[in-house]
Design goal:
Blueprint lengths: L10 H13 L14 H12 L6 E4 L16 H29 L2 E8 H4 L7 H21 L4 E8 L4 H5 L2
Parallel strand pairs: 1-2, 2-3
Helix pairs in contact: 2-3, 3-5
The chain binds NADP nicotinamide-adenine-dinucleotide phosphate.
Length: 169
């Protein structure tokens, strides 16, 4: 295992290598910038998963503020990107993957929420909290809609894990 950790290798790449070696699996990678051309990104994802049985979809993608600020200080670019990545991104990737799961009558979708939306009021990450509030309700509704179709949907609500997401540190 230690042999896989090359100097300068990103943790994610190390993890990918570990999975390939230990589980004997193949990994397909699609690079999508969720702040960019989302239609093109979703098209690439649809193309990549064609013919694959996607059993589990984990919608981990998410951004927050580079640093905490009050709502009147949030500029248009940040506001748009938060909604685009956190709300539109998760919704559209789910929409791309769901038909295959429905056809096979099985699948699991895991969305990532946040304690600032579901447990305590955010201070001051309001737009981020709002987008995660969407993820929470989106997940509940999907769960109800698809539970009889063999698809399980859940929202994992995370507390503060690192300063990277919250403050870009
Ligand atoms: N950390 C916390 O305290 C906390 C608390 C509550 C909820 N969450 C949620 O947990 C999830 C994971 O966050 P994390 O803490 O693990 O932070 P992270 O390491 O920054 O993960 C965010 C993920 O989103 C991807 N991403 C960000 N911007 C993107 C873009 N424009 N296009 C494509 N991918 C993009 C990142 O990809 P790259 O690695 O390639 O940049 C990364 O895989 C997020 O949904 C976050 O909102 C985190």
């Amino acid at each position: 295992m230690a042999g896989l950790v090359a100097e300068g290798l990103k943790y994610e790449q190390w993890l990918v290598n570990l999975l390939i070696f230990s589980l004997q699996i193949q990994i397909k990678t699609v690079v999508v910038d969720f702040t960019g051309d989302l239609s093109e990104g979703i098209r690439k994802i649809r193309e990549a998963i064609e013919g694959l049985d996607v059993g589990v979809l984990i919608n981990n993608v998410g951004i927050s503020y580079p640093y905490a600020r009050f709502f009147h200080e949030v500029d248009d670019e940040l506001l748009n990107n938060l909604i685009k990545v956190n709300v539109e991104g998760t919704s559209k990737v789910t929409q791309a993957v769901l038909p295959g799961m429905l056809k096979r009558k099985k699948g699991a979708i895991v969305n990532i929420g946040s304690s600032v939306a579901n447990v305590i009021p955010s201070d001051p990450l309001y737009v981020y909290a709002g987008t995660k509030g969407y993820i929470d309700q989106f997940s509940r509704c999907l769960y109800v809609e698809y539970k009889n179709s063999g698809i399980n949907v859940q929202c994992q609500v995370m507390y503060m894990e690192s300063l990277e997401v919250a403050f870009g540190m």
